[in-house]
């Protein structure tokens, strides 16, 4: 769901002050990480000559990323607009995920859409309205992204959508001060995470974990992330892929072991629910509020994605030595580094030259760095990408830097959010529903059996 992929990133965005175009020396947009305009600087239009003169052309972009999070997107297109003469008409809609399908089925499509899920991309492709990605976009994605990202933007072997922004889900939030005061250390393996949990229980100062899965009609989705993270750690990337594609049953050995491991943390009353009550309160605690008790030392740990930074109160110092920070949810051992995440994909419904030009620019490292600069906020806001050309110096806040380091680490084995790739009847239906029933008392076996039975 897009609400998990970055729609919650908040904070005041410092827009780039871009001056009028100038000409001069410079690399191509596909080959530099810093050209194309900087805050308070000018745009080197030599970098954009390959896109031609697009004066008088308008390109519509439709997305679910609304104000104020849309501002960095609008800002990131300014150099392209100033140097090519084209106008990018960015249209934001909170009902994007429903409306883009309605518009595609009615033949009323935008030029470009920012799609938050591979599953939704496949639904759009099935309408026959989506255009295959241009060759220039494919080359950029092959150069700047891990091959798995191109696969995620493909349907039945055809490449349709380049990746854009990303989020890291394999994170555990904690209080650096609480860790220092109690002599706790960031765990490096799952065994160490379990030992840390047991030590916090033994110390008796607070509950080790706090959690919340309430999210309106989407209640339950945070538990699907927990399970996906543990399937990835128990079975590895290949088994995870088989599970997501239903090549192995939802209730088979590895998924069963993974959910039971989650239960060792979340269904044990000694471990949860810090600041809220007993285990049952996990189902009724809003996911936005779930990690806040860390700030009051009512819990020590909260597993949630990088975008959760936006939910801490204004003025919270999110840093390695601050009020709150996060660490990578460890693997079984240091021989692997599984990473669960999500992201956005850029796809087109038109193959007009100006649309193809914007798509190509959007898939470069130049755009990624422009977007990172436009998104940088010294408190909670921000944006990251798995684009290998992203200069992490353009990321201001520490959680973005941490997330980018995890994403771009050559040792990382990245996998996309599983429920976002499953059929809707499962991914945002039975999986959410039965996960909620599981946390309120339903057994692992019954939970997984019911999800398996719901698979189309």
From TrEMBL:
SUPFAM superfamilies, sorted: Periplasmic binding protein-like II (SSF53850)
Keyword flag Transport: yes
Keywords, comma-separated and alphabetical: Signal, Transport
Statement: the UniProt record of this protein carries the keyword ATP-binding: no
UniProt signal peptide: 1-19
Family: Belongs to the bacterial solute-binding protein 1 family.
Stated name of the protein: Alpha-glucoside transport system substrate-binding protein
Species for this entry: Cellulomonas iranensis
